[in-house]
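Our preliminary data section would be incomplete without showing what the modeling component actually yields. Below, a chain of 178 amino acids is followed by its predicted structure, encoded as C-alpha cells that our downstream tools consume directly.
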Amino acid sequence: MFLGLTAGLAWAQQDNSQQPSDPVAEAARKAREQQKAAPKPKKVITNDDLPAPADNSAKPAGPAAGGQAEVSTTQGQEEAENNPKSEAYWRKRFQKQRDKISSAEQELDVLQRELNKDQVQYYNDPQKAMQQQYSRSDINEKTAKIDAKKKEVEALKQQLSDMEDELRKAGGDPGWAR
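Predicted structure:
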C-alpha cells in the first residue's frame, strides 16, 4: 500500500510539471532570470560614504608622508596652545574662564531657587515650623551660600577682565578674547 501511495504522489508531481503553469508565476521566473543576467549597478558615492573632513587649515598643502604630517601638525598645535603670543593660547584661556563663570552662575541660580522655595515653604510639623520661624537657620544658611557664590562670580569676572588687560599688554588681538 505504501508503494502505491508513493507512486501516486510521484505521478501527480510529473503531471503538475507538464501542465501549463500560472502566468504570474511564469512572469516571476522570467524576471528572476533577467535579474541574474543583467549587469550589477555601479556604486554611487555620496557625501555619506566619504569620511568627515578634518580641520584643513592645519594640514600642509603639498604632498607629504601621512604619518609625519599628522605628528607635526599636532605638535604645532600643542606649541601654539602653550605659546603666550599665539591666538590658540589666548582663546583657550578665555574659554576656560568663561566656562568657570558660566558654571558658577548656574550654581548661583540653583541656590537662589532653593532659597525662594524655602521662604514660602510650609512645615506640617508645628515644632519644626516654630523652630524655623524663630531661628530661620535653613534660610540663613542658603543666604550665606548665595552671598559667597556672588562673590565668587564677581571674582571670576574680575579675573576675565584682568586677562583682557593682560592680552592687550601682550600685544594680542582683542578679538582673541571672544
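The two ends are 96 Å apart (CA to CA). Residues 81-177 form one domain. Preliminary results of this kind motivate Aim 1 of the renewal.
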